[in-house]
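In the design runs reported in the main text, the only information available to the sequence generator was the tokenized backbone. The following block is the verbatim input for one such run; it is reproduced so that readers can re-run the procedure and compare outputs position by position.
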């Protein structure tokens, strides 16, 4: 009875190990695919991380956040996040004096056609366009960062799945070994039993 139970648990563990191996393979594929896509798409943008005077002109906290990537090609999720939040956003805030695109656009839309055609209106239109482009680029870069993070999580999950599968395979081997040992012990006990006599 003990041998049969050990075998059942062992084979169940083997099935779980196979499931984890398949899941780990799929997760690793997702990790590699996402990583390649993020790298390829970001590299195509041809953005070089700021360095030198470009860093010096930024507030200290923003310059410190960008310093580890100074002069490198923007091709990773963390670089995309740093560039979006500590370079583009800083320049957007400086250009718009802290106003958002929605605020500037709202002011421009409420102007009459004559006001929009004035010098002030044209400046506001230019600022509106600048903030729109900045928001668009920031959004794309932060999407890249989000996907890169998902890829990293998939890679970690794949490693955990492979480790779990390895542990279950080890336990499967030990379970089968224990089942055979239990069978031999049961055989010895049966063979060594003294027959009952009346």
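Verbatim output:
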């Amino acid at each position: 009875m003990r041998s049969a139970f050990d075998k059942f648990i062992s084979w169940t563990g083997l099935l779980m190990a196979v499931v984890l191996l398949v899941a780990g393979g799929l997760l690793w594929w997702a990790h590699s695919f996402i990583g390649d896509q993020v790298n390829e798409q970001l590299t195509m943008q041809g953005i070089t991380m700021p360095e030198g005077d470009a860093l010096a002109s930024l507030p200290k906290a923003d310059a410190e956040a960008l310093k580890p990537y100074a002069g490198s090609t923007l091709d990773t999720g963390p670089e995309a996040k740093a560039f979006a939040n500590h370079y583009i956003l800083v320049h957007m805030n400086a250009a718009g004096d802290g106003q958002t695109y929605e605020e500037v656009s709202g002011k421009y839309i409420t102007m009459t056609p004559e006001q929009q055609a004035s010098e002030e209106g044209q400046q506001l239109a230019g600022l509106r366009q600048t903030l729109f482009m900045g928001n668009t680029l920031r959004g794309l870069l932060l999407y890249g960062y989000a996907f890169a993070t998902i890829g990293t999580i998939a890679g970690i999950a794949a490693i955990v799945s492979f480790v779990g599968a390895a542990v279950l395979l080890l336990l499967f081997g030990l379970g089968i070994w224990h089942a055979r040992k239990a069978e031999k012990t049961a055989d010895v006990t049966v063979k060594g039993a003294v027959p009952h006599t009346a």
